[in-house]
């Protein structure tokens, strides 16, 4: 009698596998011949992921899918599923909720508690080589340690729930790693845009919303000033970078190595938007509006989500460790301007997500 096919025991687990970053990372691992597991929340999300993988010709013979619940400390795994994951050595936590306008409880549950549950579970794996936690380029290293209640209140008041939760999660997972001896790497990507060749993203918030307003003639002024810098990274380069981290971050590196992954050749925001306007054949705003004025004006007038204003900064970021890993892994970052124009073309072709989506397209980056 023919036996049912059983995939090889997975050596990597991707949490948040249905999101923009997670599914691209999973594809990268499977294309590289790794036996990998994908954590999904429901039958529907698993079906959407499998459809996306099939639609992108990703080999799935070495793929295992498991149901996870990041709201629970043990990830909600039953004993049989936990046994199937016994040989996992690399755990990637790409889970989280990328959305502005959340309240504090929702943002903490999705971005702080879930990260602690994922990494605490990973720390108990007998053969763990490395856990990789994905957060954001404005969140890394802001706090020296977990915030006190008073510090947390100030953090959420000043930054808004989404960014504050990412900042808090960065601090608490570092603390966990030191206390538990967890081999942890943190990756801080900047704004993630579409594939460098196809422009595909499937995500339509953040900078994509500004491009949408530019395309639709609803951007009367350029936000920020001439030096405002909103760096980008393509999703395919980020996926290749993440896949390479466990091979190149070792016990000999920093206690908790952190990598800022972004393209320093990204033009300043005003130059970027003017360039995209020229590429798309639409009129670019002539003037700008400083962030300080945007903060004082009512949202009903500006149409700008207040939580996004902290991203309009002239700050620059230390990419030395990421650049070193890119060289060691033999990666070649794609050129930024062609990637930006392909992403913008794709956003326009997809009407910025306003038309019905295929079932395989995620709505947010978990």
Automatic annotation (TrEMBL):
SUPFAM superfamilies: NAD(P)-binding Rossmann-fold domains. Residues 16-241 form the Thioester reductase (TE) domain. It comes from Nocardiopsis aegyptia. InterPro entries: FAR_NAD-bd, NAD(P)-bd_dom_sf, NAD(P)-dependent_oxidoreduct. It comes from the Bacteria. Pfam families: NAD_binding_4. This is Nucleoside-diphosphate-sugar epimerase. One of its GO terms (cellular component) is cytoplasm. The lineage of its organism: Bacteria, Bacillati, Actinomycetota, Actinomycetes, Streptosporangiales. PANTHER family: NAD(P)-BINDING DOMAIN-CONTAINING PROTEIN-RELATED, PROTEIN YEEZ. Transmembrane segments: none annotated. GO terms for molecular function: aldehyde dehydrogenase (NAD+) activity.
């Amino acid at each position: 009698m023919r036996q049912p096919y059983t995939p090889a025991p997975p050596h990597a687990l991707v949490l948040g596998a249905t999101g923009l970053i997670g599914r691209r990372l999973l594809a990268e691992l499977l294309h590289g011949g790794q036996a990998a597991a994908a954590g999904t929340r429901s039958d529907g999300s698993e079906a959407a992921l499998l459809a996306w993988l099939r639609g992108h010709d990703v080999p799935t013979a070495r793929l295992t899918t498991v149901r996870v619940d990041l709201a629970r400390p043990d990830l909600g795994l039953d004993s049989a599923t936990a046994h199937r994951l016994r040989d996992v050595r690399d755990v990637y936590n790409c889970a989280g909720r990328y959305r502005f306008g959340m309240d504090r409880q929702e943002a903490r549950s999705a971005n702080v508690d879930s990260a602690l549950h994922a990494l605490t579970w990973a720390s108990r794996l007998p053969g763990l080589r490395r856990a990789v936690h994905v957060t954001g380029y404005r969140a890394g290293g802001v706090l020296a340690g977990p915030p006190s209640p008073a510090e947390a209140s100030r953090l959420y008041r000043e930054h808004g729930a989404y960014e504050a939760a990412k900042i808090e999660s960065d601090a608490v997972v570092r603390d966990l790693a030191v206390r538990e001896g967890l081999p942890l790497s943190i990756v801080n990507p900047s704004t993630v845009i579409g594939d460098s060749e196809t422009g595909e993203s499937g995500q339509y918030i953040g900078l994509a919303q500004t491009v949408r307003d530019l395309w639709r003639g609803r951007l009367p002024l350029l936000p920020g000033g001439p030096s405002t810098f909103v760096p980008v990274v393509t999703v395919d380069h980020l996926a290749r970078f993440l896949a390479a981290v466990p091979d190149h971050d070792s016990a000999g590196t920093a206690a908790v190595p952190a990598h800022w992954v972004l393209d320093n050749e990204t033009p300043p925001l005003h130059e970027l938007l003017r360039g995209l306007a020229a590429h798309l054949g639409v009129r670019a705003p002539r003037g700008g509006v400083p962030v300080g004025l945007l903060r004082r004006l009512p949202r009903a007038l500006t149409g700008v989500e207040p939580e996004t204003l902290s991203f309009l900064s002239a700050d620059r970021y230390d990419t030395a460790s990421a650049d070193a890993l890119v060289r060691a892994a033999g990666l070649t970052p794609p050129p930024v301007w062609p990637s930006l124009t392909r992403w913008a073309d794709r956003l326009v072709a997809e009407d910025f997500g306003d038309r019905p989506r295929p079932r395989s397209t995620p709505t947010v980056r978990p």
